[in-house]
Amino acid sequence: MAAIHITDIEAAINYWRDRSPSPDGITLAPELRALAEVYALMVYHREDEVSEVGFPRKAWAAWIEWYRTTPDTPCIAICSTSQGDDQCKGCGRSFDEVQHWPAMSPAEKRGTWRRITMEDSAWRFNKYAERAREAEHVWPDEPANDTPVTAGD
């Protein structure tokens, strides 16, 4: 059975902190309390992952609500597994992961996301991410579109 990594628990906690901030700095929303209990036990036992089997019901509901705000698939529509590669150059998933993605549990999908993010070798994380950053870059010396350029400039 799949496991949920502590970084996903942290992300879910931060999601709920933003969504349901404490009114007095002490009281926590029920979703936060449920996730914090799981997180505290993981820290206490020095565990990086917790099995999705036996996950407390309220914590699971809070985690699933956060999970639904994340992208479902790492696919960037450049699938080299369809060309015979064992590992997709576009998203980093294995052929089996691509084929079985719809049937995978949320924890299995997040495990795959974590692995491909940590490997950082797929085009999703380098070539195309780099191009997206370049497209957003605005040079500080460029005049604004509405600023007329004079002959003295």
From TrEMBL:
InterPro entries reported for this sequence: DUF1289 (IPR010710), DUF3717 (IPR022191)
PANTHER family for the chain: DUF1289 DOMAIN-CONTAINING PROTEIN (PTHR35175)
Protein name as annotated: DUF3717 domain-containing protein
Lineage, opening ranks: Bacteria, Pseudomonadati, Pseudomonadota, Betaproteobacteria, Burkholderiales
